[in-house]
Write a structure and sequence with these properties.
- Helices cover 50% and strands 13% of the residues.
- The protein contains 19 helices and 11 strands.
- It has a 7-stranded mixed β-sheet.
- α7 packs across α18 (337-360), α14 (274-284) packs antiparallel against α18 (337-360) and α16 (307-316) crosses α18 (337-360).
- The longest helix has 24 residues, at 337-360.
- Bound molecules: tryptophan (TRP).
């Protein structure tokens, strides 16, 4: 077990030891058996499932048991609006869309403008601007508008607050302190916030006056909120939500860091132009190759640490065959880092082109997605 792992919604430090996290957080590994169970319903498997990018879960077998009994689950995930949407977000949400399509489920999507206002050095107005902006990208993902419900914390406060206080009453400050590394000098809003992020996991149950199973796809840094919430829900008469955990999306500069809006690191954003993507990958993407072409041809490269290859593996290359070939050819030195970068740039740009096209027409759709109550 690793003591050095710091992975929580507000800090991810250094290289993440995912096996250590499974231990520390008490997660279950995604294994062949549970993948087969998923595949029984979805027919094919998303590349993120096949490749261990979705690496862990909580109670997935329970949610599939319920599903097989005809008790459908809903999906819940969210966005903290404090900056542009980047590749890590897109990867998470396109996977969420895949789940929605395959299991034909409702999706509750939370925009935590309260959270970002409380935690970031940004004004309320700036956060509102990011909320509007980010909603367009989420719409561009293509979620089913009839089955997708946006919750904006400050706008749906009247709906969320009565549930949030019931949850908050069962969480102590000392639990929050130890889960997030808070001290007495954290602002009091941030201490309360976990209870707001918990609510959507039970909201359909509250609205329908009947317990509905919930599945939450998330980046593993978000797990601490739900670890706390899962302790509370049974005490209030609700199911614990099931969770799917995704690896953190690597930063451009190397596998020891994650792509994150908070660190002032270089992001590839959903709005980047083809030339921006090209510039960023060429300039920053950490190379697993050798110092010279000659040496590379002789010794080969290391795909494990080559960020371009990892972007393809984490999401952007859907074909396993193509990915395996790239891995082999890079390891043997047959293809260079430059060629790997070129291919990655093409893949990302192709992807962003489609996304950006759908984003054009997203504005007129916002009201369709807004949760009515
Ligand atoms: N707190 C998350 C963030 O900062 C946003 C979020 C809200 C979320 N609810 C969620 C993420 C549920 C995953 C699952 O990005």
């Amino acid at each position: 077990m690793s003591n050095k792992n710091i992975v929580n919604p507000y800090e991810v430090k250094g290289k993440v030891d995912y096996n250590g996290l499974i231990h520390e957080f008490g997660l279950e590994k995604i294994d062949e058996k549970v993948l087969n169970r998923i595949q029984n319903h979805t027919r094919d498997l998303h590349q993120m499932l096949k490749r261990g990018i979705i690496f862990a879960h909580r109670d997935l077998n329970w949610i599939l048991d319920e599903y097989e009994k005809g008790n459908k689950f809903f999906l819940y995930t969210g966005c903290g609006p404090s900056g542009p949407i980047h590749l890590g977000h897109l990867q998470m949400w396109y996977f969420t869309k895949w789940l929605q399509d395959k299991f034909d489920c409702e999706l509750y999507f939370q925009f935590t403008d309260d959270e970002k206002f409380l935690y970031k050095n940004l004004s309320y107005e700036e956060i509102q601007k990011w909320t509007e902006e980010n909603m367009l990208d989420v719409i561009a993902i293509g979620f089913n508008p009839k089955k997708t419900h946006f919750i904006i914390d400050t706008k749906h406060a009247g709906l969320l607050y009565p549930e949030a206080i019931k949850i908050a009453k069962k969480i102590t400050f000392s639990t929050i302190k130890s889960s997030f590394g808070f001290t007495d000098s954290n602002n009091i809003g941030s201490i309360f916030y976990t209870s707001m992020q918990a609510v959507p996991a039970i909201l359909p149950s509250v609205l329908k006056k009947k317990n509905v199973p919930c599945l939450i796809p998330l980046g593993v840094d978000q797990d601490p909120h739900f670890r706390i919430a899962r302790d509370v829900f049974p005490k209030l008469g609700f199911y614990k939500p099931a969770i799917l955990h995704k690896l953190m999306f690597p930063s451009l500069t190397g596998m020891n860091n994650v792509m994150s809006s908070s660190k002032g690191s270089v992001l590839i954003t959903a709005r980047d132009s083809p030339s921006e993507v090209k510039k960023k990958i060429n300039k920053y993407a950490f190379s697993g190759g050798q110092a010279t072409m000659e040496e590379h041809k002789k010794k080969g490269g290391n795909p494990e640490i080559d960020v371009s290859f990892q972007y393809l593996k984490h999401f952007f290359e859907e074909s396993d065959e193509r990915l395996n070939q790239l891995e082999k050819d890079y390891t043997s030195g047959k293809i260079s880092t430059g060629e790997m970068k070129y291919y990655t740039i093409e893949k990302i740009n192709q992807f962003l082109k489609e996304h950006q096209k759908r984003r054009e027409s997203a504005k007129s759709k916002i009201s369709k997605y807004f949760l009515k109550y």
